[in-house]
Amino acid sequence: LSVSQQIADNIATYLTYGVSASAPSGNALTTQTITFTSPGQQTLGTTPASLLATASSGLTVTLASITASVCSVSASTLTLLAAGNCTLTASQTGDTSYAAAPSQQVSFSVIDPNATGTTTPITPTVPSTPVQVIPVATTGKTLYAAQCAGCHGAAAAGASKVLNGANSALTILNAITTNLGGMAALTSLTNQSLADIAAYLATPAI
């Protein structure tokens, strides 16, 4: 048996009104929809956001919580009870002119700022006076012999293949960062070590 939408509407109207003259003209109820906006993530201990649910008919929408341990709702007032996921439903049963609206549902998280493992981001403090690196050329000489001489030769030798401007720690760092000539292998060198090597290359005859 195939039942058309019109026949279904007529049956529903009859069950509601019988054959009284008060039934809407045409024996069909007007459909309506619900718009329910999620309030988004909420935080325990703060004032919850206002809930907004409206029906296209203008009739009052009923809100209910289906996660009673996390949140509750009275009229349009939301109450947060515990951390977790809160799920609310919005419904409108209709009246003599409007059919019941399809219910709408929204879910959002409720967080506890005091829960274990929840931390407040820390803004790093920048020292007012930068820490000074004091180059030590003699230490650089030892480091150069161990880390660099195998490829570049003795710094004081005329045939040494040392970068122009390598008496700058920044120049050496840039070469390591860009892996110039395979220098990425030296990424373990500290800023102090780079400064020491640069100081040695500035005075290779020490």
Biggest sheet, spatial arrangement of strands? 2-8-7-4
Distance linking N and C termini: 105 Å
The counted number of beta strands is 8
Alpha-beta content class: alpha+beta
Largest sheet: 4 strands, mixed
What percentage of amino acids are in beta strands? Answer: 15-25%
* Number of contiguous helices: 5
- Radius of gyration, taken over Cα atoms and rounded to an integer in Å: 38 Å
Helix content: 10-25%
Order of helices and strands: HEEEEEEEEHHHH
Low-confidence stretches: 19-23
The outline comes out as rod-shaped
User: What's the overall average pLDDT, rounded?
Assistant: 80
Describe the structure.
The protein has 206 residues and is an alpha+beta fold. It is 24% helix and 20% strand. It contains 5 helices and 8 strands. The strands form 3 sheets. It has a 4-stranded mixed β-sheet, with no helix packed on it. Strands 1-3 form a two-stranded antiparallel sheet. Helix 4 (169-177) packs across helix 5. The longest helix has 13 residues, at 5-17. 18% of the residues are buried. The model is unreliable at 19-23 (pLDDT under 50).
